[in-house]
Amino acid sequence: MAGVNKVILVGNAGRDPEVRFLPSGNSVANFTLATTENWANKDGGREDRTQWHRICAFGRVAEHCAKSVFKGKPLYVEGRLQTRQWEDKEGVKRYTTEIVASQVQVLDDTGDVGKAILVGRVEKTPEVRQLPSGTDVANFVLLTRSNRQGNDGSAEERTESHRVAAFGKTAGVCGKYLTPGKLIYVEGRIQTRAWQDKDGAARATTEIVVSNMQMLGSRSDAARAPQGVAEPGGEAISAGGPDDEIPF
């Protein structure tokens, strides 16, 4: 079964798109998008947090971005999550997560949205731990597969790895019921966090903070596990941790 890998973002362009051409002649546009979320803190005051997302568009979508997208412009972006890797000039492996846009629309002023919808299989048993506040958090990787047409017309299959974080009751459900290979539906917001590893090097990772998780697959699975588990909010995970060197 092919997975679902869908992202919806509404925010403001962080810079003008950088447009270039691939050896195939296809155009590609790269820019950043900022989304801001607001919530009430323990004292009843309002707090906000801005997330930055890398956007990549190809072909006609790239040409549209080059003509219509400017720094500060409110945008609706729909696409899929993609993680890629390369080696820098010192030979160190680097990773980045970006949204490959299938649709970009210029909007009037509007509230920000950062939403991801994924259907895929759990790679490993979730790691469940407790934050200093006493809230449980579960971390795991979800694998999604997509089929696309290659440059030569043949079908190509691509697997993407997504880091997922769940809090509270949802974390408990994940720790109890999720096993390697389990098919699940995940809905949540995209969060990017940064920290320094034990060597003092800057690290960053992008993950999905779960707001809704459902077990899919066999009837026996559905009967055992609670469905439609939703967590209205989640605490930001403290920087660092045992997976400092893991890119996703």
Question: How would you sum up this structure in a few lines?
Answer:
With 248 residues, this protein is mainly beta. The chain has 3 helices and 13 strands; from the N terminus they run ββββαββββββαββαβ.
Structure write-up:
This protein is mainly beta. The protein has 2 domains: 7-106, OB fold (Dihydrolipoamide Acetyltransferase, E2P) (Beta Barrel); 115-215, Beta Barrel (OB fold (Dihydrolipoamide Acetyltransferase, E2P)), CATH 2.40.50.140. Helices cover 10% and strands 56% of the residues. It has 3 helices and 13 strands, in the order E-E-E-E-H-E-E-E-E-E-E-H-E-E-H-E. It has helices at 59-68, 168-177, 219-224, and strands at 4-13, 18-21, 27-40, 46-58, 74-87, 93-106, 113-122, 127-130, 136-149, 155-167, 183-196, 202-215, 229-230. Strands 1, 2, 3, 4, 5, 6, 7, 8, 9, 10, 11, 12 and 13 form a 13-stranded mixed β-sheet that branches. The chain is globular and about 50 Å long. 27% of the residues are buried. The model is unreliable at 220-248 (pLDDT under 50).
